[in-house]
Design goal:
Length: 618
């Protein structure tokens, strides 16, 4: 299909490929391979393949790294005005986080600072991984997988208090899922006060350094794998890179820590440590390769310092170390000549740059916890202290998790034409302008609650205020306010959904295709918006709440568990989700009663559509 879309469909870019084939609009795991296939097909078709970061820059990621470094550029707006194709462009969901990553790799400034925060993708902006229902995961750092009984107790208490689903990961730490955005500062206050730090599970940064117990406990261990893993994870924590990277340290050749499946790995020998680089799991697994044998602990750390810094300097955007080494001139041999044999004479510089990064470390969550002015960025709604559940929870193996996504997610289009014809549209003040945390040079956003409907509002400097429904149609997740704002080749602003990067035009003008998605199966409702800075108010042109709720009500569209869930779970059948009649808020907070409870009436099933005039039913 990818080759055919180039030959027959005229596809010439990643964006066009996604729109034409839907490739890359799911988990994203296929993107490296899909991009490679697309580029090969383009070359065979005689089309020049560019290595530019995106359409907003005429430079590769590697070029931009050097430009930003030597020109000492410190924020996205300055980078765009200095070397971008269009000095005042908003950029896009590709270049904004890529530039943000480069800035962090060079200067390691606090990414929650106002001038840097809006450059970050959603996970970095909220210092947590967004989950499929719009809630977040909380992952404190457990260096080398070590944790004290007191630490375990704190995590248990936090998870219990906030109703979080807990799971031990393959990286030897504890994930807590289902945290509401507005609860994140309070959760992390408890964790920070107990001595925990951010695990950076949300960033393109070091994740974990996995270890076996090594010579500390194991009768086969010949090296202190736990101690070295702890030292390396503490050394490289918080360092941003083109992609996430992981380490593994094994105390003997039995390799219990799977060091050869990591971006870097060390295996103890009777003479020292063997150093491996370039491994990973994922969609295209790769075995790490041996780059140095029987080196001392200090020598191993020097080699890893050089390896990581050289990778940061020269890899492409979102390129793992495995793919980077495969493309590197001379492969592993060429890389070894640079970072072990010092063929280019840059090893001392690499080591010094690493020392600077290590020395500028700060726990991002600790700084948020200690700065109350940053807490307001995590509110669910800026115009009310009310909160609203965004999915129904279901019990599974004694824990709570969100209802499943619908099996079928057919075309779903929203428009102001779906609102009842007799509804009167008027300008209504919805929040304070300062609630949007307006910045001089970068977009900012917030969510408001209007009746039972969630509306996303953006402030775009020099361009005004934009507004749209907060729900992304494909998965009915209320997340659009948290997406990155970009600009297409026609100069139109759009928001990129944080779940699967579908882009929606934010204009309220139908002539500008307002609400249109780059995936033709979906579109959203946008609204006219304006602000009055003197009165500190934002106005939206809206119908009465009941008219808009009939189309966009959160209770109507939130994920619900299927009424046959219990039978399906018990019988092992595949279970689908259907939309049932709205539940009242008390029921949602307490959780629905069992569908099989004696004496309880069956849930009333209703069709859910975009509005009275829509022909689409779920």
């Amino acid at each position: 299909d990818l080759i055919r879309c180039v030959k027959e469909g005229g596809v010439r870019s990643i964006g066009e490929m996604k729109s034409s084939t839907k490739c890359g609009t799911g988990c994203g795991g296929c993107m490296p391979l899909s991009t490679s296939i697309l580029n090969k097909a383009l070359k065979e078709a005689g089309v020049e393949v560019s290595n530019h970061l995106c359409g907003h820059f005429a430079y590769s990621r590697q070029d931009l790294y050097q430009i930003i470094k030597f020109k000492k550029l410190k924020d996205f707006t300055t980078v765009m005005s200095t070397v971008g194709k269009k000095a005042d462009s908003l950029g896009c969901e590709v270049c904004r986080p890529a530039i943000g990553s480069i800035l962090s790799s060079l200067y390691n400034d606090w990414i929650m600072a106002p001038q840097l925060r809006q450059t970050q993708d959603t996970n970095d902006r909220y210092l947590a991984n967004m989950q499929r229902d719009g809630t977040y995961s909380v992952v404190p750092r457990l260096a080398a997988g070590e944790i004290t009984p007191a630490g375990l107790k704190v995590i248990g208490e936090v998870a219990e208090e906030y109703g979080l689903y807990t799971k031990i990961t393959g990286g030897q730490r504890i994930d807590m899922f289902g945290a509401k955005k507005q609860d994140l500062p309070a959760i992390w206050t408890k964790l920070v006060d107990a001595g925990f730090e951010s695990g950076h599970a949300y960033g393109k940064a070091l994740r974990t350094v996995k270890s076996c117990v090594g010579s500390t406990w194991c009768r086969y261990g010949v090296g202190d794998s736990v101690g070295l893993a702890h030292e390396l994870e503490t050394r490289y924590k918080g360092i941003r890179a083109p992609h996430k990277f992981k380490g593994g340290i094994s105390g003997c050749v039995r390799e219990c820590a799977e060091a050869q499946g990591k971006d870097f790995g060390l295996i103890a020998t009777t003479k020292g440590w063997n150093v491996y680089v370039g491994g990973n799991g994922g969609a295209k697994p790769r075995h790490a390769e041996l780059i140095a044998e029987d080196v001392t602990r200090r020598q191993a750390i020097k080699i890893l310092d050089r390896f990581i810094l050289f990778y940061i300097r020269s890899a492409d955007k979102l390129e793992r170390t495995a793919r980077w080494i495969e493309k590197f001139p001379g492969g592993l041999k060429g890389l070894k000549e640079v970072i072990v044999d010092d063929k280019l004479g840059i090893c001392e510089d690499l080591e010094k740059e690493m020392e600077v990064l290590v020395g500028t470390y700060h726990c991002e969550w600790t700084k948020v916890v200690r700065d109350p002015t940053r807490h307001k960025a995590f509110r669910q709604f800026v115009n009310t202290d009310e909160t609203q559940p965004v999915s129904e929870m279901m019990s599974e193996r004694d824990q709570q998790r969100p209802a499943d996504w619908p099996v079928e997610t057919g075309p779903l289009h929203f428009s102001i034409l779906d609102v009842a014809k007799e509804a009167v549209w008027e300008w209504r003040s919805v929040c304070k302008y300062t609630d949007l945390d307006p910045q001089k040079d970068s977009p900012s956003s917030a969510t408001i609650k209007y009746g039972d409907t969630q509306i996303a509002v953006w402030n775009i400097p020099g361009r005004g205020v934009r507004a749209a429904q907060n729900m992304c149609p494909p998965r009915r997740a209320f997340v659009l306010a948290d997406g990155l704002v970009g600009e297409d080749d026609k100069g139109r602003e759009y928001v990129s959904c944080p779940l699967h990067k579908r882009n929606y035009i934010l204009s309220a003008n139908a002539d500008e295709e307002g609400g249109k998605c780059n995936d033709g199966d979906y579109s959203i409702m946008t609204f006219e918006a304006k602000m009055d800075e003197e009165k500190d108010l934002v106005y939206l042109k809206l119908p009465p709440t009941e008219a808009l709720d009939a189309v966009l009500s959160t209770s109507k569209w939130m994920l619900r568990r299927a009424t046959e869930e219990s039978d399906a779970m018990a019988g092992g059948q595949s279970h689908s989700v259907e939309i049932t009649g709205p539940l009242d808020m008390d029921t949602l907070e307490k959780g629905p009663s069992s569908p099989n409870k004696p004496g309880s009436p069956p849930a009333k099933k209703t069709k859910a559509s975009c509005g009275e005039q829509s022909s689409l039913d779920w």
